[in-house]
Please model this.
Amino acid sequence: MEISILIVDDHPIVRYGLWKLLSSEPDFQVIGDAENCTECCEKIQTLSPDVVILDLEMNDSNQNVVITSLRNLYPKVKSVVYTELTKDWMVTEAIKLGVHGYVDKSSNINNLKTAVRIVSRGERYLDPAVVSKLMQTIELTEKRQLQHCTITERELEILQLIAKGYRNKTIAKLLFIAECTVKFHVSSILTKLSVSSRIEATLVAKELGLLQD
Model:
């Protein structure tokens, strides 16, 4: 039994390439393509595909709206997100909203083919690259949560000032300590939060609830 596929991407070359590659599979039938979300919904109504391959980073796309619309309006249609591997929250949000598969565009095309076959059976599929990235993020978050417990009161003071945009020289004057001491504490903070910049340190500190309002 053939799996009917609708390709949705705002790049004509991508749509053409996917059409050629997927059509070569004996169990696939590419029945149409669309360049935006509006056209996608129109094509679903007229063509009734089994699987929609969807890029979330199109000009008119809003991840939440697109996936929710597909899930609510066309519950029998399976969706496979095929997009550049983006921020973790986009991946997790897409999964929460009910997307059936998620594949990174930089992956081997066989991963996409596998995803189409698996979701057509009513199962879920996550690209190994996506799983790996999510696992790394989870591990890093856990590491930061453990390490931030070792941040000293002095480091917290300096972290608060870093978040306000103060440089080392100013922090040293405000806390009545040597600038070299500030540098030492800043280095320690970056290490404990597993970051490489003051901006990253501020963002992670906010996520961990280390900064006072």
Observations:
- The beta strands are 3-8, 28-34, 51-54, 78-83, 101-104, 125-126.
- The first strand starts at residue 3 and ends at 8.
